[in-house]
Amino acid sequence: MTDDTKDFAPSRRQFLSGAAAAGAGAVAGTAASAAGPDPLITEKQPWAQELGAGVDETPYGLPIKYESDVVRRNVEWLTADPISSINFTPIHALDGTITPQGCAFERHHSGAIELRKEDYRLMINGLVDKPLIFTYDDLERFPRENHVYFCECAANTGMEWAGAQLNGAQFTHGMVHNMEYTGVTLRTLLEEAGLDTAGDLKDKWVYVEGADASSNGRSIPMEKALDDCLVAFKANGEALRMEHGYPVRLVVPGWEGNMWVKWLRRIEVTDHAVESREETSKYTDTLEDGTSRKWTWAMDAKSVITSPSPQMPIKHGKGPLVITGLAWTGRGAITRVDVSKDGGKTWETARLAKPGEKMALTRFYLDTTWDGEEMLLQSRAMDDTGYVQPTKAQLREVRGENSIYHNNCIQTWWVNKDGEAENVEVS
Amino acid sequence: MSKSRNLIISTALASTLVAGPALAEKFGLGREALPEEIAAWNVDIAPDGTGLPAGSGDAFTGEEVFAEACAICHGDFAEGRDNWPKLAGGEGTLADKDPLKTVGSYWPYLSTVWDYVNRSMPFGNAQSLTADEVYAITAYILYSNDLVDDDFVLSNENFMDVELPNAEGFIIDDRAETEYPIFNVACMSDCKESVEITMRAAVLDVTPEDEGTEAEEVAQTETEAPAAEEVAAAEPAEEAPAMAALDMELVAAGEKVFKKCKSCHTVGEGAKNKTGPGLNMIVGAPVGAVDGFKYSKPMKAAAEAGQTWTEEELAAFFAAPRKYMKGTKMSFNGLKKEADIAAVIEFLKNNGN
């Protein structure tokens, strides 16, 4: 099959470099501006005459080649080695709320491992009535639940504390994904082992640990463990991907992604926080005076406009424009998202595609008209606790610039008259 | 840490603790964990030292172990190489513009050091250290931070006597008091008088290039692609006699063995130098000749002497790197099984050779 559709849109690189800036808006495929009959209509096209691919050509389908730029991306200079690193979900190019597994961000501390279901074991030990070992098959015999939850790395937007740095929603906000999980509640498994031995549960903890070489482990307060944590083995209907902890990972709704231990192999009931490396030297937030917050588990309300954005310039010129983005909160549900076009002077309330759901991504749209002038686009999320997403200045006022984690500030994209967007900071 | 965690438990969650576990239905699934199994996995160490095995090690010995097992990434003096974590220094910098967070300047508990080294290090060969080695490394890290003398012996007996400088430097999440009461206003109009752009990401220019453009270019030239592939396929075919010996099963086995090497070496398309040199075309190549890699002195000397990485030389090197070449930067203990050595060489031959 030949490919004749190539000459329509200028490449994104040209947009970013400004090379195609002049008149770019007029080029993009808008049927209304056609000067004469459209050959795509008046001439017979090969796809309308020849045969397409047979049913078995791709037993497991991947996106069509024209979408090959919608992939996870890494920022090499961030980490020493891709084996202990992170990449970013292409949120700029996605719509709706569910993140396909194949492009959902990855974060490994010792690489993604290949662990067969047959070799999988889950241990529950510590202050339980009877320490237990489960196989993967055992887990599938407990009652299951389905829930959609976002998972956000605590370091998402962490590179932006000191100023606007990375030019793209994928890089500033792409350490987040949102999937429908199937699994057994952690509560069910803990109760199977029995918690009478633990006595008063108020001051008890659950330490969870992965089977990979990093042995990533985190301490979770018992009340969260019994509330909504899920021992998940499916995401978006199919098995977890290797990079997300196949065959079994922990889901800790609304709390920082590092706690969502992948390749979950052990659950220990304790009377103390283990104070592991990932909850002391990392994932603690240093304040301006040099003291540091620890146990900052919940992800506060946050939003970002995914389009237009630096990787998603406006190509169609003035007229109808859809401004869209994502909002989420780890402390409940999103109730409202406002959008500003003038850097926060005035705001209008966006339309939520669906009412906000607990600890899940919410899609918002502002169906508007672009006058072709510059915009300073911002979005601002609110949740059902009454919390309003702060500006970067407000956050810095409380924390300084060295927190690394939990940067949920309002993001600004500067859209110029050609429709190109850039990550900026405003007064 | 003046506050109890209970203060921050939300009232909504408190109810989850009330539904008595005793009432819970049991499914009778799983089996009881055996003591040996629990002992094998339950190795986390508590801040009060609970879980520490008997053993000891001194800073002086720790320096030797560290040099072999850790220095390749963390530097001889725990000062860190490239982007790898620095483990020493930084005291008094936590309130600076760019704080240096190390064991000495930041970590609150020594138990965390012991626990992490024991369970997760060295990178690419985790859980290979003895308890005494972990005590020794921990002692050396303390020494590197000027917290103990070089004859200091750390053991399970005196472990709790060591207090790290930043032990009191942490507070429990206080956002509920310091942020939530003020982050609750949503102004809609006349929110500020003027708006100025104060910083632009394009000025820094640290964003990765858009590879998407290349993808589009590939799609556009696709009709020509098959021809190019045919050419590429034809070339190796002409060299077939030299490649005929390759045993693809052995190559596959070697790929698995190579996982031990991956933390420092890459091979195949796009292979480049990391902690160790990229290894494309390495079998039969001159020693110490990978472009851009900074070799150790003995490796440079071997290069000057005109040595070649024949399969025999590689096998000897892989079996005991530091015995084969005293002073090599390669801090790998070696492959014990001859079958693994043969497999990994076959794998390397399949990559560019």
What labels would you give this structure?
heterodimer, A: about 425 residues, mainly beta, Sulfite Oxidase, Chain A, domain 2, five-stranded mixed beta sheet, five-stranded antiparallel beta sheet, 24 strands, B: about 350 residues, mainly alpha, Cytochrome Bc1 Complex, Chain D, domain 2, two-stranded antiparallel ribbon, 16 helices, sulfite oxidase activity (chain A), OxRdtase_Mopterin-bd_sf (chain A), molybdopterin cofactor binding (chain A)
List the helices and strands and how they pair.
The complex is a heterodimer of chains A (427) and B (353).
Chain A: H1 12-17, H2 24-27, H3 39-42, E1 73-74, E2 85-88, E3 107-108, E4 121-126, E5 132-135, H4 136-139, E6 145-152, H5 169-173, E7 176-185, H6 186-193, E8 205-210, E9 217-221, H7 222-227, E10 230-235, E11 238-239, E12 249-251, E13 264-270, E14 285-286, E15 292-294, E16 302-307, E17 319-328, E18 334-340, E19 348-349, E20 351-352, E21 362-370, E22 375-383, H8 392-399, E23 412-415, E24 421-426
Parallel strand pairs in A: 4-13
Antiparallel strand pairs in A: 1-2, 2-3, 4-5, 6-7, 7-10, 8-9, 8-13, 10-11, 10-12, 14-15, 16-17, 17-21, 18-19, 18-22, 20-21, 22-23, 23-24
Chain B: H1 11-14, E1 31-32, H2 35-41, E2 56-58, H3 59-69, H4 71-74, H5 110-120, H6 131-144, E3 153-155, E4 170-172, H7 175-178, E5 197-200, H8 201-204, H9 212-220, H10 225-238, H11 240-243, H12 248-257, H13 297-304, H14 311-319, H15 321-324, H16 338-349
Protein name (chain B): Cytochrome c domain-containing protein
Keywords (chain B): Electron transport, Heme, Iron, Metal-binding, Signal, Transport
GO molecular function (chain B): electron transfer activity; heme binding; metal ion binding
